[in-house]
Amino acid sequence: MRPECGPSIASRTRKTTPPRAAVGVDAVGVDMSRNGIDMTSPTEGAPGSRLPRSVRALLVAGAALFCVVQPALLFGAGLPLLDTIALAVLLVAMPAFALAQVPLVAGTPVERLPAYWSSIATLWMLGVACWLVGTRSGGPAAVGMVAMPLGPLAVWSVGLTLAGLATLVVFRAVLGAAGASESPILRQLLPRSGQERRVFALLSLTAGVCEELAYRGYAIPILATTMGSPGAAVVTSLVFGILHGYQGLLGSMRTAIMGGILAWGFLASGSLLPAIIAHALIDLVAGLLLGERLLPPDGTSERAGVAQDDPLFSETREP
After folding, report:
1. Rounded to the nearest 5 degrees, what angle is found at the Cα of 233, between the Cα atoms of 228 and 234?
2. How far is CA 143 from the centre of its chain?
3. Between 24 and which of 131, 228, 236, 287 could a Cys-Cys bridge form, CB atoms 3.0 to 4.6 Å apart?
4. Alpha helical stretches, state H, 10-149
């Protein structure tokens, strides 16, 4: 889900059959751009254009909104300059880039390991940046890194994890009732080989730490000074859902709700630690243990107009 676009798709793709696993919180914030995008071919009826019109429109809209939001936070809300830039990046720039890359990778086989590793690097850069900005005056407590007794920490962590997994089950039922299928991109991003599962586990832990630091620990306290904690939780959760637009509309809604659950856990417990633990556990359990059980029932993809002999549904799992 990261914004950068790589080299030609031919250099990064191969004939592959994706796994039939389902979803984590964000499955798990993968930088799909490392799969590679051909930036030189004319597309969407615009001779000689380097990007599809829809992608250019999203990027232009994101840039325009950034130029509105950042000054509004600086002059309207009176936030420090560094915080206004960081918030505008988190709330505007990253969602715009995430949405823009979806049409670029649609229908293209994804090489999972390069995507996982690039996402791990990107997430750590994001997390470290938010840590440095958020703790510069108030220390670790300013981004929610507050110690908790072991008992309450375990209760909060398990409770948030179960609530997140329950959300996945509910949306599985919704997808099945609607005759819809999971996003093909999401299906491709889930691991199948032993090596992929190991790197995916590392990515799940990384996403738990870094995304929670950015969108809960850093963004919510800063936004709360201008719109209150409930408003900040709602805004960050909606943006969190948009960031996962590659999962489709229902997938984005699912992720936004799960972001809201984690935000509530952060605010109610007074510490970011339960949200970090729960986020990582949800991704690990959903992605590595319960994947196939969280898919819509067999046949929903066919009703959604996807042939069952499509490579997306004919995977043979690697050891």
Report:
1. 100
2. 20
3. 287
4. 53-71, 81-88, 94-105, 112-134
Q: By the 8 A CB rule, do 209 and 197 touch?
A: no
How many Å is the Cα radius of gyration of the chain?
A: 19
* Contacting residues for 187 by C-beta, under 8 A, at least 6 apart: 18, 19, 20, 21, 312
pLDDT by residue for the chain (319 residues), tens only, comes to 333 333 332 333 344 333 333 344 454 444 544 444 444 444 444 444 477 888 888 899 999 999 999 999 999 999 999 999 999 999 999 999 888 888 887 777 878 899 899 999 999 999 999 999 999 989 999 999 999 999 999 999 999 999 999 998 888 887 777 776 777 777 778 888 889 999 999 999 999 999 999 999 999 999 999 999 999 999 999 999 999 888 888 888 999 999 999 999 999 999 999 999 999 999 999 878 766 556 555 443 333 333 333 333 334 344 4
Task: Scan for tokens 């509530």, then name that residue.
Answer: 264
Judge contact between 271 and 144, C-beta under 8 A. Answer: yes
Q: Residue 37 contacts by C-beta under 8 Å, 6 or more apart in sequence? A: 5, 6, 7, 8, 9, 101, 104, 105
Closest CA to 166 of 72, 286, 34, 13: 286
Tokens read off for 90: 């988190």
Dist CA 280 CA 266 (whole Å): 15
Distance between CA atoms of 316 and 190, rounded to whole angstroms?
14
Which of 15, 10, 34 is CA-nearest to residue 112? 34
